[in-house]
Amino acid sequence: MVVSKEFKDFYSRRFGAKNDMLGFQWPLTCSVTRHSLRSRVDMAKELGVSVTTHAGVYGVNGDESIRLMHENDCMGSDTVFVHCSSLSEDSYHRIAASVVSLGSMR
User: Fold this and answer.
1) CA distance 50 to 25
2) In this structure, are residues 52 and 103 in contact, taking their beta carbons and an 8 Å threshold?
3) CB neighbours of 86 closer than 8 A, spacing ≥ 6?
4) What is the spatial distance between Cα 8 and Cα 84, in angstroms, rounded to a whole number?
């Protein structure tokens, strides 16, 4: 995904002064697809911001979202997961292997 000039202008006006509290957040739900996931992660990378996402929210999203992110190389040191409370052992291993920051597990 290429970030439009209009969005880049908006981003610069609203978030021009970067700091460690700036980032994008989106929910991983059952409806997330490989394409939408990849385009969101690519957009954040193009803007140079980290990605924060809720994962393992009981009854909302979980292991499938983690698997999808992991298999499509959408996890890294610039990814922060919060509310990782209902995942399988496999998902926790995938998160740990990607060297992510576990926001709610500190």
Assistant:
1) 9
2) yes
3) 56, 57, 58, 59, 62
4) 31
Listed in sequence order, the residues at least 6 apart from 80 whose beta carbon sits closer than 8 Å to its beta carbon are: 23, 50, 51, 52, 53, 100, 101, 102, 103
Helix orientation angle between 89-97 and 63-71, rounded to the nearest 10 degrees:
30
- Say how many C-beta atoms besides its own lie within 10 A of residue 29's C-beta: 12
Residue among 69, 61, 56, 65 at smallest CA distance from 98: 69
Secondary structure in 3-state letters for 29-59: CCCCCHHHHHHHHHHHHHHCCEEEEECCCCC
pTM as predicted = 0.71
pLDDT for 23-68, tens place per residue? 666 656 556 677 778 888 888 888 877 777 888 777 777 888 889 8
